[in-house]
Amino acid sequence: MGFPPAVLRLSGSPRASVSRMATAGPILVLNGPNLNLLGQRQPEVYGPATLDDVVALCREAAAGYGREIDARQSNHEGVLIDWIHEAREGASGVVINPGGYSHTSVALRDALATLGVPVVEVHVSNIHGREVFRHRSLVSPVADGVICGLGVDGYRAAVDWICRRQRGSGSVAE
Ligand SMILES: O=C1C[C@@](O)(C(=O)O)C[C@@H](O)[C@@H]1O
């Protein structure tokens, strides 16, 4: 059975619920290769919003819960991995659009699998309605939820979900 045009799969996986919930730290919003070109790149696929717009809407969503965003973008796999390692120390959650690395990077997946905070994978486009090579994400199995096809609103939904599930947990609990 295929996915409908817009896919929102958010599961409360045991991984995040048993994990370290450090809600004091910022939510890391990580964007991978070519996402710096949002708004210019294939607007018929990715829409008119820019990466700055994405960051602004994430900050707005987080601010509603008194939370902060740490937004970063890189075109380099190793840099993204280093930032995920950094997130192990202080981030309270990760929203990641791995771009093309979603479909190729075992290393990125392995880095994400080391995290003990909620991870949501976001794709602006509906990857399941596009080329077959985009249908499989190596990252999805280690994410708590996957949102695709909602345009940049998917980022807002991801931040909102992390904030909601951590609301009230306040402090670090092992
Ligand atoms: O760079 C991207 C963007 C994307 O992650 C998205 O947001 O829809 C989908 C990927 O297949 C593509 O390589």
UniProtKB/TrEMBL annotation:
It holds the Pfam family DHquinase_II. Pathway: Metabolic intermediate biosynthesis; chorismate biosynthesis; chorismate from D-erythrose 4-phosphate and phosphoenolpyruvate: step 3/7. Its EC number is 4.2.1.10. It catalyses: 3-dehydroquinate = 3-dehydroshikimate + H2O. Substrate binds at residues 97, 103, 110, 124-125, 134. The active site is at 46 (proton acceptor), 123 (proton donor). Transmembrane segments: none annotated. The record marks 41 as: Transition state stabilizer. It is an enzyme of class 4 (lyase). GO terms for biological process: amino acid biosynthetic process; aromatic amino acid family biosynthetic process; chorismate biosynthetic process; quinate catabolic process. InterPro entries: DHquinase_II (IPR001874), DHquinase_II_CS (IPR018509), DHquinase_II_sf (IPR036441). One of its GO terms (molecular function) is 3-dehydroquinate dehydratase activity. Keywords: Amino-acid biosynthesis, Aromatic amino acid biosynthesis, Lyase. Catalyzes a trans-dehydration via an enolate intermediate. Belongs to the type-II 3-dehydroquinase family. Homododecamer. NCBIfam families: aroQ, PRK05395.1-2, PRK05395.1-3, PRK05395.1-4. This is 3-dehydroquinate dehydratase. It comes from Rhodococcus maanshanensis. The gene is aroQ.
